[in-house]
Amino acid sequence: MTTIKTTLARLSLMSLAAGTVLSLAAIATAAAAAEQPAAAPEPAAATAPAEHYQIPRQEWTFGGLFGYFDEQQLRRGYKIYKNVCANCHNMRFLAYRNLGEPGGPNLSREEVQALAAEIQVPNGYNDQGEAVMRPGKPSDYFQWRFKNEKEAAAAFNGAVPPDLSLMAKARSVERDVAWYKFPFWMLMDLFTQYQEQGSDYIYGILTGYVDPPAGFKLNAGSSYNRAFPGHQIAMPQPLTDGAVDYEDGTPNTLDQESRDVVSFLAWAAEPHLVARKKLGLLVLAYLAVLAGLLFVAKKTLWRNVEH
Question: What percent of the chain shows pLDDT beyond 90?
Answer without folding.
Answer: 61
